[in-house]
Amino acid sequence: MSAGRESAPPADKVVLVGNPGVGKSTIYQYFKTGRFAPEDQLSHRDKAEHTKKWNVSGVERSMTLYDTAGVERHTQTMLPTYFRRAKAIMLVYSIDNMESFGDIGSNWLDNSLNSANSARVVLVGNKVDLEDGQEVGGESKRVISRERAMQYAVMNDIDRSMVFEISAKTGHGVTEMFDAIVKTIDPVVQSQPAVDEKPNQPSCC
Ligand SMILES: Nc1nc2c(ncn2[C@@H]2O[C@H](COP(=O)(O)OP(=O)(O)O)[C@@H](O)[C@H]2O)c(=O)[nH]1
Ligand SMILES: [Mg+2]
């Protein structure tokens, strides 16, 4: 029996946006299942959302990740609803596709901030596995450098700690990215001391 019933805090809403083909659904699937799903295994429903418990710095939080699954094609009408109450917006581009990076600035950033201006903005360069060119005859397919993404972030008031390069194919950087997102949108988690810190212990001798 518990006297004061504590309700669990609501899940943090996090949304994925970006041009078709940058890998949003693949990131979503990786979040959901912890592994890469090739295109033929991706579900192409109208909208997908998945809530997952995320344990960071010893604190468990719930995060719901939303995948547009096509909403990106109906920018004006659908996006305000999609963004409503989002705590973080993940602007995804593909490091091998200049247009997808350019459209972050010319389309996605303004659209998202118009609809959810208190959300944290996260800049995500996906497909970083294409950097080493293993699958493309040894040539790197990268066309957007990390420095360029950083410059873009600085110029657009995006926190530098919210700029990531990941691969939803190899999983490179994915968990670390979600850890950082949970921390930045959740002040409770942010203020937790690291596990090996013992702030209230009296100092001995
Ligand atoms: N090499 C590579 N391919 C990826 C990666 N993420 C997604 N893809 C591929 O990119 C294509 C488009 O991915 P998808 O998730 O459908 O993109 P969406 O339209 O943004 O949802 C698919 O063929 C994926 O398998 C990645 O990190 N590396
Ligand atoms: Mg998709």
Automatic annotation (TrEMBL):
<comment type="similarity">
    <text>Belongs to the small GTPase superfamily. Rab family.</text>
</comment>
<dbReference type="GO" id="GO:0003924">
    <property type="term" value="F:GTPase activity"/>
</dbReference>
<dbReference type="GO" id="GO:0005525">
    <property type="term" value="F:GTP binding"/>
</dbReference>
<dbReference type="InterPro" id="IPR005225">
    <property type="entry name" value="Small_GTP-bd"/>
</dbReference>
<dbReference type="Pfam" id="PF00071">
    <property type="entry name" value="Ras"/>
</dbReference>
<dbReference type="InterPro" id="IPR027417">
    <property type="entry name" value="P-loop_NTPase"/>
</dbReference>
<keyword id="KW-0547">Nucleotide-binding</keyword>
<dbReference type="InterPro" id="IPR001806">
    <property type="entry name" value="Small_GTPase"/>
</dbReference>
<protein>
    <submittedName>
        <fullName>Ras-related protein Rab-37</fullName>
    </submittedName>
</protein>
